[in-house]
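Mods, move this if it's the wrong board.
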Amino acid sequence: MDARLKSLFVMPAAMISAALVVLALVMILAGGHDRYAWLGVLVANAVLPLFLAWLMLGKTSRSSEYLPFLLLVSGIGPVLVAWEVFEEGVAGWPVLIPALVGTALLAAYIFWYSRFGRQASESLAVGKILPSFELASADGAIFRSADLHGSPAVLIFYRGNWCPLCMAQIREVADRYNELESLGASVVLISPQDAGHSRRLAEQYGLSFRFLVDAGNSLATTLGIAIRNGVPVGVPGGYAADTVMPTVIAVNSGGTIVYSDQTDNYRVRPEPDIFIAILRRAGAFSK
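Not the wrong board. Structure tokens:
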């Protein structure tokens, strides 16, 4: 999948909405007869930048798929403007344009930007044997998938340190570290970001997770979960443009895939309880 258009969307969309919020505030404070119409512009445009700011705080690893409440709130904006224009007659119809822009950008983010349009990778389907691979770890050591044989494992393909949802997801799994360790499960985290970024992440947690570097996105490409030009333009840190679709795989001690989450929406990710419960049910953990 090539996400070049999406990589060009999110930063400008947030900036446009934020700029229209500022404009609306200026017009409201000016105290004109059309101030309630500009309040509608404010409501329509504030939702997207505020939601993205909330995601950037890294407090959550998932959200609902369609964000209906946010759509409802943003949609109130154009309705309020339309009322002021066509019923009250205290504002000109051009004020409706920035309100519609704000709601349209939010809708594009939810229904287009957030989705991958992915086809599930057959090689990562439940019941298949985990494909063999060899990658370098963050510290430069070579890791082979065969090293997992004899114990269950959870493999998380994540986009990189730049992705707050990915970081929250890793933190969420780290919070279950003692439980996973007591059950004999390994946690393998795979990203196309360079070793320096992965090493900093490994040092941050100080756990026995395996942080692997998929140089050139070669493994993700082989598995059919790579995204070309998937890193948003404007993300700081010197990340390469290509990334990976968020994917969670759980295998039993024989290397058979017993759980495969290949989300089609980067904001929708599995709770750790789900794959832990499936591993238990599959008899992946030694008694």
